[in-house]
Write a structure and sequence with these properties.
Blueprint (H helix, E strand, L loop, with lengths): L7 H13 L17 H9 L12 H17 L6 E5 L2 H16 L3 E5 L4 H10 L2 E5 L9 H7 L4 E7 L11 H11 L3 E4 L22 E6 L12 E5 L2 H5 L3 E2 L7 E2 L8 H39 L12 E5 L3 H10 L5 E4 L2 E6 L6 H14 L1
Parallel strand pairs: 2-3, 2-4, 4-5, 5-6
Antiparallel strand pairs: 1-7, 6-7, 8-9, 10-12, 11-12
Bound molecules: ligand 0PR.
Length: 370
């Protein structure tokens, strides 16, 4: 650290320059995050000092967290729940698996090949084996293969409602039926899907099924809130209790979250955007993302690329062998896309910041590259 400080103006100028050097979100098709809604930013700033880790000092943030959790549950059609706000999908996945492991005391869990890498982190941190279930031709988990992998040490199953690479949804009803017969709880990772699925009529996904023990969803993805904002819902108190830690010297008696100190500002921001947009507001945003997803498919089909699956949500992936070269070339032209590995291809996340006009410009550049 320098001995004497620089002026505020000078420091901020340096930061502004750094910030301005980025590729703006308008040209980013690789991200599940987006510009937070302006009301979320205002609410975040209003509560910037608050700490959910010691909410006795800021009682209103606990109230806001509870409201965010119950609005999310209602949106997903879940009547009986408990839960808390996480820092995002990674914490939610770690905590959900920790709860299942603590309740059932098993040594392994099963996750689909399409899982997000945060599940691998959970396996490592918890020191439990992760068995990887294969997928069917639609890139959903193969339920009969999954069933065969269950053994006497299995404490849980992970399913996806919005896979990272394809936005695919695993057959939850089928998984729930099988898991109920085998008496194994299921964690549903809906980090991306939770704030998309409820707004697409054709996606009739039932989150309130037997054996689904937890569901995660991220307001900092399609919820238009600030980073960090995640939700973790449990079907029964026993799972929450299984991750409860005593905090004797704080203003609160116990904690459920992985971090101790955590932003109350996220709860305020998420509540603000939920209240301001309402279901109608979110529906409009999702509909526009879906229209743009259909548009990019049409434009890509003109270039000879077919989507790997008919997209369920606003993520679309095209098989592409020389994706590494194409991605580099696109980056030189200041477009960011991501690479899918299973199958190898170009993955585009058509977030609310993606404009129709930019999709057309992007495809023109892509045409020149190929
Ligand atoms: N579960 C699923 C299905 C996910 O897709 C992700 C993140 C997570 C869990 C973990 O969520 P957190 O990153 O909030 O802990 N998927 C995105 C991805 O890997 C995360 C992301 C977001 C990456 C924005 C890049 C980016 O610019 O693609």
């Amino acid at each position: 650290m320098r001995k004497s400080g620089r002026s505020e103006e000078e420091v901020l100028r340096e930061l502004e320059e750094m910030w301005n050097s980025r590729i703006p979100y308008e040209r980013v098709f690789s991200s599940m995050c987006t510009k937070p809604h302006p009301i979320a930013v205002k609410a975040f700033l209003l509560f910037i000092e608050s700490n959910l880790g010691d909410f006795g000092i800021f009682p209103s943030v606990k109230e806001l967290e509870d409201k965010v959790v119950s609005i999310s549950a209602e949106l997903l059609g879940i009547k009986k729940f408990c839960g808390y706000m996480t820092s995002g999908g990674t914490e939610a996945n770690i905590q959900a698996l920790r709860a299942l492991r603590n309740v059932k005391r098993g040594k392994n869990f099963i996750a689909p090949k399409s899982r997000h890498f945060s599940i691998d982190k959970a396996s490592d941190i918890l020191g439990v084996e992760m068995k990887i279930a294969p997928l069917n031709e639609e890139y959903q988990v193969d339920v009969s293969a999954l069933e065969e992998m269950i053994d006497e040490n299995t404490f849980g199953i992970v399913a996806l409602a919005g896979s990272t690479e394809l936005g695919q949804i695993d057959p939850l009803e089928e998984i729930s039926k099988m898991a109920s017969e085998c008496d194994i709880p299921v964690h549903v990772d809906a980090a991306f899907g939770a704030f998309v699925i409820p707004f697409i009529d054709e996606l009739d996904v039932n989150f309130s099924l037997p054996s689904i023990s937890s569901i995660s969803g991220d307001p900092h993805k399609m919820g238009m809130s600030v980073i960090p904002s995640g939700i973790l819902l449990f079907s029964e108190e026993k799972y929450m209790d299984a991750i409860k830690v005593r905090t004797p010297y704080l203003t609160t008696k116990h904690q459920y979250s992985l971090p101790g100190t955590r932003p109350g500002a996220s709860a305020a921001a998420t509540y603000a955007v939920f209240e301001h947009l309402g279901k109608e507001g979110y529906r409009k945003i999702v509909e526009r993302c879906m229209r743009n997803t259909k548009l990019i498919i049409e434009l890509m089909e003109e270039l000879g690329f077919e989507p790997v699956i008919e997209p369920k949500m606003n993520i679309v992936t095209f098989e592409m062998e020389d994706i590494d070269r194409i991605r580099e070339e696109l980056k030189k032209r200041r477009w960011l896309v991501s690479k899918s590995l299973n199958p190898l291809g170009m993955r585009l996340v058509i977030m609310p910041h993606v404009e129709e006009e930019n999709l057309k410009l992007f495809v023109e550049d892509l045409k020149r590259i190929i």
